[in-house]
Design a protein that fits this description.
This protein is an alpha/beta fold. Helix content is 47%, strand content 10%. It is built from 20 helices and nine strands. The strands form three sheets. A five-stranded parallel sheet has the order 4-5-6-1-7. Strands 2-3 form a two-stranded antiparallel sheet. A two-stranded antiparallel ribbon has the order 8-9. Helix 1 packs antiparallel against helix 20, helix 3 crosses helix 5 and helix 8 packs across helix 9. The longest helix is centred in the first third of the chain and has 20 residues. InterPro entries: AAA+_ATPase, AAA-ATPase-like_dom, P-loop_NTPase. Keywords: Signal. This is AAA+ ATPase domain-containing protein.
Amino acid sequence: MKLNILFSCIFGIGPASFLARADWVDEQKKHAETNLDANNKPSWSQAEYHTPNDLFLEFSEIRNSRAFIDKTFFLHEWLTHRPKHWYVTAPPGFGKTALAKMAVQFLNASAEIVDGVEKFHDRHKTAVYELFQGTNIFEMKEFFDQHFQNYAVIYVDLAPLSNTTEAMYLKQDDFNTQDFHIYFRLVIKKMMSYYPSLLFHQSLTDIERERFREYLENGMETAVRPTLFWNCVSFLKEMLKKTLKKEVIVIIDSYDALCKPSMVGDLSKLQRPYIGSYIINFSKLLLQDRLATVLYLGTIDTRELMLLKPSDVGMQTALSITHTPFSTDERLAKYFGLSKQEVDDILSKHSMEEHLGVVNDLLNGHAVTGSSLTLFNTKYVLSYIEHRNASTIAFTMPSTTEILHHYRKIFSVELISNVVTPCVYKIKLR
């Protein structure tokens, strides 16, 4: 058990969430391959809403389910008290993506392009407004009026990049052969697809329109080069500012996606400096706009991937993204995972109150520094409810051998091995 806690500290994952990581790569790979094979070229109309419909449907489903727990005060915490460029890490299954999609719905203006001109809808008459009625944030009238649907939001999900198996510097690279670039194109295409009707805005130049069309259709311009991967978010940001004339907020989910292949991938096909160069330049271009608001969400601290030695991490100043592990701040931690009271509330809604003791024994395990608060993995609580405790095997922690085998490639990196190995075996002896 002590070893499990050690790995939770190293990788930022809770004990109950390890199994999610074990299955995670296969699930993401299947999802990404489906998207890559699908014939999903966008079809556009001049009355296309900018609100991402799939994100709306996902949040709507959560909002109207018996499992809904009101975490909307996170918006106030983030926009009022936190840095402009803020990176929050929490374990898989602790609701990061749900928070991101909730934020997109709350902040993103509802608009359409009519005859080449932007037209904004009455935000008090939108379906999203109805979803937020009755929530905690709805009662904060001044904050709600100031921020609700008052921005253009860019939502970027980097998760497909975690499937990368090939990423090396090639002298004659077409940027379409290695799966790293293919997955990156998929990310860009999805990001752009939330705003297809920008093509019809009269303020775009012919060059801007053609560039945007290529991003929509192929996830990349024809004359591909590394800078276009790095600059994709900044390009869309400028197009939104120009057409919608709204402040742009960027939300980046799975910001640490490239850490995963870097840790457990085949190092003969993956060059960490090459992967690192992409995230460094991607981040630098976002940081050039110091006034922009960017929320980064992930599981693992990315600074080592930015080619820093552990001894230099504390002195990092070049990339001024403020990182906050969720479990180091009780005021922040309550927005992730589920407290015991929240689990009790959900179980009650499903007439399973008597299961609280069992759920507590199986799933409670992530502590918050300097607090008595402990948090449950949301994904596993909901899985328990869905299967009505059909099997407790699904929640059994893997053995020490299984953990070491799963992360065996990490230990081949001398920089990491020298630090981690003594800790692992020292605790084992205890």
